[in-house]
Every structure is written in C-alpha cells, then in structure tokens.
Amino acid sequence: MYDAIVVGARCAGSPTAMLLARKGYRVLLMDKDSFPSDTMSTLAIWPHGAEALDRWGLYDKLAETGCPPTALKMRFDVGPFALVGGVTITNGGRGGFCPRRTVLDKLLVDAATESGAELRENFTVESLLWENDRVVGIRGHERNGSPVEERARIVIGADGVHSFVAKAVDAPEYNAVPPLATYFYSYFSGIDADDVEQYTLESEGAAYFPTHDGLTIVATVWKAHRFKEIREDIEGNVMRVHRKIPELAERLEGARREEPWVGTAGIPNMFRRPYGPGWALVGDAGYVKDPLTGQGINDGFIDAENLADAIDAGFAGRQPLDDAMANYETSRNERVTPMFHFTCELASLEPPPPEMQQLFAAMHGNQEATDQFYSAITGSLPLPQFMDPENIGRIMSRAAMSA
Fold this sequence. Notes:
8-stranded mixed sheet, alpha+beta
C-alpha cells in the first residue's frame, strides 16, 4: 500500500513524487516510457521555474550539464523594431534554461528516486481501481508483463494534456478554448542564437531556443486550420516564413537540421478540476494552454510544490484533505488565469490591437520597461501588475517625454 501513486514521470510527475517522498511518504512513480527519452516540448524553463529547481537542490546539477542560460537577453521582433531584454528580478538574475528533455526529465526522475520514490518505467496503466466511488489504486502492466494491481491513498495524474487519469475519473473541464495554433520544430546546428528569439508576422511566426550541445530549436507557428497544408511540405513552409525576414532566412540556410521535424495540430486550452475522491491532477493533466508563452514546464514545477503541500496538509491532519485540495485548485486558477487569457490572445496570431502596438513603441528604448515586460510575459512578475493602468501610464508618459 502506497501513500501516493504518480502516473507520469516527467516535469510535473517526478517533482511531485520527489517532494512527497521528501516529506516521508511512500510513493510509486510510473511512466509508459523509460528514461532518458524525449517528448514534444518548448524546453523553456523561465527564471521562476529555475528558482524552483534551486529550491530542490537541482539548479546546479542542470547548469553543470552545459545548458546555456537564457531569458537574459531575449529578442522579441515586432516588425519595425525588436525589444531586447531579460528577467533580472527572479533567480538572482541568473536567467533560466531551455534544456533537452532527455536531460531534464532524467535529472528529475533521478531526483525522485534518490528522494525515496519507487520508479517503474515502461509501465502502462490500464484502469483505475475503485471502491465506493473512490479511486484506491491502479491496474496495469510493464512491457510484456503480466497485469498487476497497486493501491494507494491517492492516485495522481501527471500524464499530460491527454491524461488517462483525467479521462478515467471524468474530471470536469472548464474555460475551454479550441486549439489556436499549429507548430513544427526541429533542432539545428550552426545557428548563433544566444538567447530566446521570437519573430511575429501576420498570422505566423518563428522562434529560436538555444539548448544543449550547441543546438538551437527552430520553431515555426501558423494558425491551427493550416495544419494539414503545412504538414505536406514542412521544410518549404518553414523556409517561406523565414524568407519574410531576410536575416532569418540567411541564418537558416547556413544551418543544418540534425533531427526530424516534430509538430502538433494544436494544443487545447482548458482547465480541469484537479482533484476528487482519491485522485488528483498536476501539470498539463490539470491545466493546459497553447505553448506560445512557454509556461508548461514552469507551471508543472509550481503545481508539483502546491499539490505536494496540499496532500501533506490533508494526510498529516493539519487540514481536511478536501479543503486543502480545493485551495490547491483556487490558488492555481488565481495564479494562471491572466496568463491563460494572454496566451490565448497571442496564439490567435491576430495583429496586436492599437493600444498594444503603442505600448511596444513606448517600451522601445526603455530598458527598465522592456525588462519588466519580459518578467511579466515569462511569469516572474504577475501579468496584471505589469498591465496595471498606472504602470502602463508611466511607460507611456516616459516615452512621450523622451519624444
């Protein structure tokens, strides 16, 4: 009998298992894959996500893998000019990372097992076990293995947007927005990207993310309805976007693609109720949005901390478990809802409204405001704080005075 079974061992599941194990609970962590292995990802760990790694004693371990720091000199090209800045208010000004998931997920899995969690790789969960309308465990099998049953006080779904656990418990969904954008990306050598770069065009865009081994992710985005068209000629469609920005076309033509293209027809945007009798959801299993703002890994880290604290409060008797889990959902929603709406607005790939264009122009040449903007859109600064009318007024007034 386990205290917790965590289904899914990537960037939400492994930290949840690790934190619960560090609190003294008996935890079983399982995943359909083995590690190291890759998965579709933006790779973005923004500075506030890197702070979580630091709290867990894992920041230096990731830095030692040779992953270059990011979020210190980002570039957001809005057409007439580019905003260049970084996040200095979080993580001691050290920035964040864009690590390969083969490296990051293995590091997190190892941290979970070193903390005392039991790991089962190549394990497929077939069904949940129920007693009196309460989840009490799982039934599944290892690769080519016989079916096994395991029981726990709580089963945690950390198995992504298409979560088996969420579907098995029929977790209620709300605030749903259909997929907005389609993406394709691959890893290139020979591109001199020192930090994250983003380029916006009408109804499409491109981004660069430097990662391990001198490689750079080249990601391109279009509106979701174009998925089939783009998939028919990925290379050609990526180059057509780059040719609209001559500097990018030259860089891409001089680079070499090192891995196959990875793509998605679109990511749904939605919240799920993240708890019920004997079950909980964490990371993308409980809340997911378009990857344009790169929040997924960071939200998974923060969710893991908050869920582990809520479960501990309930199991230790400091608070009724249902109350602790309700607080987990409420605090999650309060934290992420502004970014959810902002992300959906950006992922529509519509031209920014006039007031946003005016704000971009006002920030151009104002390094303090630009850094504040990057802190807000990456999640280190609450977005409503940056968008507060008084703050926007100060930025606009300073631009007018400079003019």
